[in-house]
Amino acid sequence: MSSYPFETSAILDGIRRWVEIESPTERPDQLNKLADVVAGGYRDLPAAIERIAGRERCGDHLIARSSWGQGVPGILVLSHLDTVHPMGFIKRLPFKTNGDSAFGPGAYDMKGGAYLAYHAFRQICADDARPPLGITHLYVSDEEIGSPTSRALIEAEGRKAKYVLVTEPARNGGKVVTGRKGVGRFDVFIKGAPAHAGERPEHCRSAIRELANVIQTLEAMNDLSRGITVNVGVVRGGTKPNVIAEQAHAEVDLRVPAMAHADELVSRILRITSRTDGVRLKVSGGLNRPPYEKSKAGATLYEHARQLAAEIGFELLDAFSGGGSDANFTAPHTATLDGLGVDGKGAHTHHEQLYISSIEPRARLLYRLYQTLR
Predict the structure, then answer these.
(1) Angstrom distance (rounded) from CA 173 to CA 41
(2) Are 109 and 352 in contact (CB under 8 A)?
(3) Domain ranges of the chain
(4) Which residues are catalytic?
(5) Range 8-181+292-372 has CATH code 3.40.630.10
(6) For 230-279, how does the pLDDT look when each residue is reduced to its tens digit (9 = 90+)?
(7) For residue 65, which of 41, 55, 93, 164 sits 20 to 30 Å off, Cα-Cα?
(8) Half-sphere exposure (CA, 13 Å, Cβ side) for 236?
(9) Which residue, 324, 321, 182, is CA-closest to 254?
């Protein structure tokens, strides 16, 4: 393996170029600027680029397809180019290295991993022999907000593939991800009847009081023994302290490890009704990402990757994650392996960083997966 050109400094320089083009989900102009650079990297390669125009204030999506192997199910690589960091954050967290860490917004989640997959593809293209399967790399622009404009594309490409490799960052010291919780999102809207808080409170119907009832109902659904969490993360209501609130609103997050739990909890949340006469309550929403349950095919794919990692010289363990990713959309029907990106820490924080020592072995692993999957 030592003869293959996986020079850490060169790869890190490529990651830096992508990181320094800030790409918050809400800035399609910046995402498209980065997409221009990514697409340009394929111009000298045997690959066709398809660009899907952004919509709903999201950036463009890119698909790079190898010139070989496109007639049969092959390898789909999933990456996202958007980050959670607002525009200008790079002034607070400029790209820099310190010891084994390289800092920068999105360096760990997930420009580092996306670039590794691109670099590994370049090396495959440089080889004399083509691998058995075609390779399709899909870069989306809206993963950090739940992939609303890319989900259908991800699912369509996932169903055509035999394997899906997801370049989300590694977990807990380099572990890949073989399962994730499903994610549900809900909005609770409550409308009561306002009144003066001091003069005629008996004639009011407080939306905030009813929201308190709803929060208690939702909190009671938490079941940590089964891995189920329900979180009321945002609440709004009322207008003035001396006015009994006419309206209230809450945003709710649900996490479930299995589809059976999702069916149960989604139904329970949507069936919540008002306990107070004269107060109207509406719950909307549903499952945003299905659970990514470790399938037999997924376990076989992980075992193959584990053996390749051992040949390269490192131990590859797997983990289950409470956070969702685009892997949730492909795992129900296609062998999927997630967390193949760089190792590091601090995703979505002011100290986000990748570990430089993880770059070479994980780039080699992606390269070997491209070479050996069949």
Answers:
(1) 30
(2) yes
(3) 8-181+292-372, 182-289
(4) 82, 143
(5) yes
(6) 999 999 999 999 999 999 999 999 999 999 999 999 999 999 999 999 99
(7) 55
(8) 6
(9) 182
